[in-house]
Amino acid sequence: MPMRGLEDSVVVIAGGATGIGAATARRLAEEGCRVIVGDIDVNAAARTVEQMTAAGQTGSAVEFDLAEPESVAALMTTAVAAHGGIDGLFVVGADMAALRGDSDVVDIDLDLWDRVMAVNLRGYVAALKYAIPPMLSRGGGAIVMMSSAAAFQGEPARPAYATAKAGIGALTRHVASRFGKQHIRCNAVAPGFTATEAIRSVPQWPQLEASALERIRGPRVGAPADIASLVAFLLSAEGAWINGQVVNIDGGTVLR
Other C-beta atoms within 10 Å of 169: how many? Predict the structure, then answer.
């Protein structure tokens, strides 16, 4: 059964070239959405769109940089020009390369901290800033942002990443409080360990999987399709009474 309220809706995915973003793009296209896949790697975004169009679905790839507000604004302008408006937004982009140096608050390079915040937090603010006005013009819309279990776990490393992801929760609650009466819903998803194609391809994958399974109250690690299903639900009319929430999706890793 298709999810109600997604057919023919216009959804922008900010960071949809690979991994969870790509899986969500494909899932939303299957639901009948017109999907704009924005990513700094436009070639990878185009490959994701090719998979969609080959299946008779509607999608387009747009190059943009989540760290540059003007580029984020251009992504939203492109979506409106092509489709007349924006109904849904999924902000999922991140600079994963920067996270390799995200050690602890004593040793971290502050330029690295600023880079993580520029992409993983300020970029999300920019996406909200430029997507909400066209949503309001259209009568409302639904937003999902990418948080993480790291926002709740208190890890000994990755302070910049965890801080940014905790900030996503505050942004989510702000948007729900400020724009909920104007038919804007905003939620976040907080995945635990998710085995994307990139993670499965590294030599240490068996050790990573075994370590993750020790923390998961279930028989397997997560897959991008798991997250995509939740995002689609939150963007659909099925999730119409869910607003301002950060939803953990991690096999029971974080219990709260």
Answer: 18
Q: How much is the pTM? A: 0.96
Q: What gap in Å lies between CA 84 and CA 91, rounded to an integer? A: 20
Condensed to tens digits (0 to 9), the pLDDT of residues 50-100 reads 999 999 999 999 999 999 999 999 999 999 999 999 999 999 999 887 788
Which DSSP string do the residues of the chain spell out, in sequence order? -PPTT-TT-EEEEET-SSHHHHHHHHHHHHTT-EEEEEES-HHHHHHHHHHHHHTT-EEEEEE--TT-HHHHHHHHHHHHHHHSS--EEEE----TTGGGG---TTT--HHHHHHHHIIIIIHHHHHHHHHHHHHHHTT-EEEEEE--THHHH--SS-HHHHHHHHHHHHHHHHHHHHHGGGTEEEEEEEE-SB--HHHHTSTTHHHHHHHHHHH-SSSS-B-HHHHHHHHHHHHSGGGTT--S-EEEESTTSS--
Residues annotated as catalytic are: 161
Quick: pLDDT tens for 149-166.
999 988 899 999 999 999
Work out the end-to-end distance of the chain between its first and last CA atoms, rounded to an integer number of angstroms.
Answer: 31
Helix axes 123-137, 69-83, angle to 10 degrees: 30
Phi-psi region of 158 (alpha: psi -120 to 50; beta: other; left: phi over 0): left
